[in-house]
Amino acid sequence: MKILDWNKMDASIAGGCVVVIGNFDGVHLGHQSLINQAIAYGKSVHLPVIVLTFSQHPRSLQEKLLYLSTTHEKDQILQTLGVNALVP
After folding, report:
1. How confident is the model at residue 44 (pLDDT cuts 50, 70, 90)?
2. What pLDDT, on a 0 to 100 scale, did the predictor assign at position 87?
3. List of long-range contacts for 32-35, beta carbons under 8 Å, 24+ apart
4. Taking the model in full, what pTM does it have?
5. CA distances from residue 1 to 77, 78, 84 in whole angstroms, order as listed
6. pLDDT above 90 for 14
7. Which of 3, 8, 22, 68 could form a disulfide with 26 if both were Cys (CB 3.0 to 4.6 A apart)?
8. Residue 40 parent element (H or E)
9. Buried (b) or exposed (e) across 15-30, using 16+ Cβ within 10 A?
């Protein structure tokens, strides 16, 4: 799985991609279902799947949050699911 820099997007996605956006803290079964649907769709139209996620939940700007998994753990789970690239 590639890790993409939001400010330097990779030219390999210039032909299109399927993007799933969310915090995905914990990557629970609901998240996995959504990501698996995106992967299935991506395969059907021959496009890579990119997960756009956040290292910090937007709500954390207003309140202290406990995270279910570290960014590294989240990256590993997403890679295991078959995501082509991640924009953290």
Report:
1. very high
2. 85
3. 32/81, 35/78, 35/81, 35/83
4. 0.78
5. 11, 9, 5
6. no
7. 68
8. helix 29-44
9. eebbbbeebbbebeee
